[in-house]
Amino acid sequence: MAKSLRDALRVPPGEPVDLAGLDPRATPLAPGGKRKTADAMAADGAELARLQEALFASGDRRVLVVLQGMDTSGKGGVIEHVIGLVNPQGVHIHSFKKPTAQELRHHFLWRVRRALPEPGMIGIFDRSHYEDVLVVRVHRLATPEVVEKRYGEIARFEAGLADQGYALVKCFLDISYDEQRERLLARLEDPDKHWKFNEGDLAERQRWGDYQEAYRIALERCSTPQAPWYAVPADRKWYRNWAIGRLLLETVRELDPRFPHPDLDVKALTKALAPPN
Fold first, then answer.
1. I need a surface site. Which of 20, 46, 196, 202 has the fewest CB within 10 A?
2. How would residue 22 be classed by pLDDT, with cut points 50, 70 and 90?
3. CA atoms within 13 A on the CB side of 123
4. Which CATH number applies to 5-14+29-257?
């Protein structure tokens, strides 16, 4: 039996990955149903906020959360509901879009290194360097030889981050084909959500099988002991949010950040703040 959610959702390093065998509606280790899990998430959030403050105050370690998944899998929802639990001053969010002309003139990891969080911070990548072995592979924007080389480059890059004191939480938001359809339809049915609908998403949806294969290979090649992937069932939003919050909490707990204790003459300082007679 899994001892923690990280154990339950970790993609085992060095083992074959069968995405078809995963259940996007599963709720492993959930505290209960939707209501009970929401209560548990609120409690986890209070602990996470305290630990994040200690992480920020100590300024020693840093955490990088990588969110990858198909359109509508909930990357934005995770940022709103999970990262919203902590002080935004201690969070750095970076969304990776289509590379600019300047970025394309550099190595594909150049723009990623520039977006890494500073010491004491929690960094969030909404999409990431994995786009260069996902979109690039599916759309054949680079040769197979170049894409193949990138898996090793990513693994070495992440191992280097771990050696520098980064804790990585890489989350694959696993949504089903049918659930994606329902979420796209919901955007069309609500005029206030039309701005979120991108007709290009329909073209990408036609490549579902190609993307599943690209994700399978990326998870298989790049889930390592230093930087494992976590396959998070994403059809149930309430579970997805709790699970990623819990993965982050377990990771920061393990870092065990401590508040610094400067040498202050508390008695004298308290006296100096006393009101005048």
1. 20
2. very high
3. 25
4. 3.40.50.300
